[in-house]
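Sample log: MarR family transcriptional regulator.
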Amino acid sequence: MIDHKTQDERLHAAMELFYYAYRAFTAQPDALLATRGWGRVHHRVLYFVGREAGLSVNTLIARLGVTKQALHGPLRELQEAGLIVATVAEHDRRMRRLALSAAGAALEAELSGAQRALLARVFDAHGAPAEQGWRAVMAALASADGSADPREA
């Protein structure tokens, strides 16, 4: 028989750990973005465009799980700041391909570098089995809404 009180407590504890871990994971990038008046969506855009140069706007929208309207402002700001360059696709002049400029790549590396370092420290401290377990849990959570890129799991 399942002890629901114990299960609820376990789940609440997991939710709290997830919240605090996410706060720690995003603290440094958030502080750097705040100096520019930007938020996490700007970092997400830089990250995904940096991971796949030539990404189309529609693919970026799908990866982020946002609407075109929600992406428009942050993407425009990043382009105006010279961090993202949009070019017209050769095969379809209506499609724009996105890439990071050198300044965009430098900012993305600074934003994500702290996160990579944190993950590396934690994975190194707890070993490969813990990392594999974490990846399995995160992949299952990410697939819950169907928008996760399976290449990232």
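Observation: The longest strand covers residues 84-88.
Observation: Residues 4-148 form a domain with the Arc Repressor Mutant, subunit A fold (CATH 1.10.10.10).
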